UniProtKB/TrEMBL annotation:
The keyword Flavoprotein applies. This is Unannotated protein. It comes from freshwater metagenome. InterPro entries: Acyl-CoA_Oxase/DH_mid-dom, Acyl-CoA_Oxase/DH_mid-dom_sf, AcylCo_DH-like_C, AcylCo_DH/oxidase_C, AcylCoA_DH/ox_N, AcylCoA_DH/ox_N_sf, AcylCoA_DH/oxidase_NM_dom_sf, Mycobact_Acyl-CoA_DH. One of its GO terms (cellular component) is plasma membrane. GO terms for molecular function: flavin adenine dinucleotide binding; oxidoreductase activity, acting on the CH-CH group of donors. Residues 119-206 form the Acyl-CoA oxidase/dehydrogenase middle domain. The lineage of its organism: unclassified sequences, metagenomes, ecological metagenomes.
Length: 380
C-alpha cells in the first residue's frame, strides 16, 4: 500500500484548506452548535463552485476515492460542519452507481453543486439497527406507489431537498428481500418533520409519511432491491469517509487550554496527548487503507468496520481523558466562563458516545469483523 499523495491531490488538499479557512468562521462553528444543524451552506457552495464535490463523489469524480477521503479528513480536522455534505455525497455516489440516467440528470447536479442536501429514511423507532424489520410500506397503486409509515433519526430532513427512503414492498418475501429504496423530493405532499434534539448536540428528526404518492421514477436500484441499495451507502460511509479523526479538533482546543492554565508541561499531560495523537494517526492510516482498497477496485466494507470500531473507541478514550484532566471545568459548556477548551471538552464528552452508532453500531461492526475476518460463528 502506498499512502503518499500525488501532486494533484496535494494541490486539491491545499485548496480545500483555503476554502475551509475562508468559510468556516467562528460564527459558523457557533451556529452549528447552537442550532444543532451540522451543515454550512456557504462551505458547500464554495466547494461545489470549484468542482471539488464532483471530484470527490464516489464513482463520479476523477479523484475518487482518495479525494473523497482527503475532503472529509480536512473538514473533520478543522471541526467544520460537514454532516449534511457527507450524506449528500454518499447518496450522490449511490445514485451514480444504481440510479437511472433520468435520476442522474435530475438529482446529481443539485448535489455536486453544493446547493442540495439529502436525508436518509432508514431506521424506525421500534427497529433501530434491525433495519430489515422496518414496517414503512410502499404499495403499488396503478402507475404510482403509496407510502405510509414513519422513520427515526432522519438527520437533515429539515434542510434537505432530497430524501432516500427505505420501504417494505413485499411482505411475502424474506425480510431482506422485500425492501425497496425510493428517492424523492422532501416537499412531496404527505411528509411531516418533527425535531429530535440529541445528547451530542445535533438535531435529528422523526419523519412521518401519510399517503405519500410517487411514481416509478422514484425507485432507486430496483423494486425489492432496497437492501443492496442501502448496503452500498454504508460501504461508502464506513469504508472511505471515515469519521476517523474526530478527536483532532478536541486535542487542538485542549492543547491551547492546557498551555493557558499551565498544565501542558506536566509529564502526564504530554504523555496522554502523545498517545491521543498516535491513536488519531492510526485511525487515519486505517481509513487510508480503505481508500486505497477502493481505489484499487476493491470493496472496503470489512476494513471500514475495523476503522470505525478503532476510531470511535479512540475518540471516546480521548474525550474521557480530557474531561477527567479538566475536572469541574470540563463540565462547563460553550459560552460559560472558564469552560475548558472553550467548552469543547464538555461537548466532545457528550458527542463521542454518539459516533458508536453512526454508520452501524459498534456491536454490528464487531460482529462483522468476527464473522468475516476471524471466521467466528454468528452471534445471533
Amino acid at each position: 500500500m502506498d499512502f503518499s499523495l500525488s501532486d494533484d491531490v496535494l494541490a486539491y488538499r491545499s485548496k480545500i484548506r483555503s476554502i475551509v479557512a475562508e468559510t468556516v468562521t467562528p460564527d459558523v462553528i457557533d451556529r452549528m452548535h447552537t442550532t444543532g444543524t451540522f451543515d454550512a451552506p456557504e462551505l458547500n457552495r464554495a466547494l461545489g463552485t470549484q468542482g471539488f464535490l464532483e471530484r470527490a463523489t464516489p464513482g463520479l469524480g476523477v479523484g475518487d476515492p482518495i479525494e473523497l477521503w482527503v475532503l472529509f479528513n480536512e473538514l473533520e480536522k478543522a471541526g467544520a460542519p460537514y454532516d449534511g455534505l457527507a450524506v449528500a455525497l454518499m447518496i450522490a455516489g449511490v445514485v451514480n452507481l444504481l440510479g437511472t440516467d433520468e435520476q442522474k440528470e435530475r438529482i446529481l447536479p443539485s448535489i455536486i453543486s453544493g446547493e442540495a442536501l439529502v436525508c436518509m429514511g432508514y431506521s424506525e423507532a421500534d427497529y433501530g439497527s434491525d433495519v430489515a424489520s422496518i414496517k414503512t410500506r410502499a404499495v403499488k397503486d396503478g402507475d404510482e406507489w403509496t407510502i405510509n409509515g414513519s422513520k427515526m433519526w432522519t438527520t437533515m430532513a429539515h434542510e434537505a431537498r432530497w430524501l432516500i427512503l427505505l420501504t417494505r414492498t413485499d411482505v411475502d418475501l424474506p425480510k431482506h428481500k422485500g425492501l425497496t429504496m425510493f428517492i424523492l423530493p422532501m416537499d412531496t405532499p404527505g411528509i411531516t418533520v418533527d425535531p429530535v434534539h440529541t445528547l451530542g448536540t445535533e438535531r435529528t428528526n422523526a419523519t412521518y409519511y401519510d399517503n405519500v404518492r410517487v411514481g416509478d421514477d422514484a425507485v432507486l436500484g430496483g423494486v425489492n432491491n432496497g437492501w443492496r441499495t442501502m448496503t452500498s451507502v454504508l460501504a461508502f460511509e464506513r469504508g472511505v469517509m471515515g469519521g476517523s479523526n474526530a478527536a483532532i479538533p478536541l486535542l487542538r482546543h485542549f492543547h491551547d487550554w492546557a498551555q493557558e492554565i499551565g498544565i501542558f508541561d506536566q509529564p502526564i499531560t504530554r504523555e496522554r496527548m502523545a498517545r491521543a495523537a498516535i491513536d488519531m494517526q492510526v485511525a487515519s492510516l486505517l481509513t487510508q487503507r480503505s481508500a486505497w482498497i477502493a481505489a484499487s477496485g476493491g470493496s472496503p466494507g470489512l476494513e471500514g468496520s475495523m476503522t470505525k470500531v478503532f476510531a470511535a473507541e479512540a475518540y471516546q478514550r480521548i474525550s474521557r481523558w480530557t474531561q477527567e484532566t479538566a475536572g469541574p471545568l470540563g463540565l462547563l459548556q460553550f459560552h460559560e466562563s472558564g469552560a475548558a477548551g472553550e467548552g469543547f471538552v464538555e461537548y466532545d464528552a457528550r458527542h463521542s458516545p454518539v459516533v458508536t452508532i453512526y454508520g452501524g453500531t459498534t456491536e454490528i461492526n464487531r460482529n462483522n469483523i468476527a464473522e468475516r475476518h476471524l471466521g467466528l460463528p454468528k452471534s445471533r
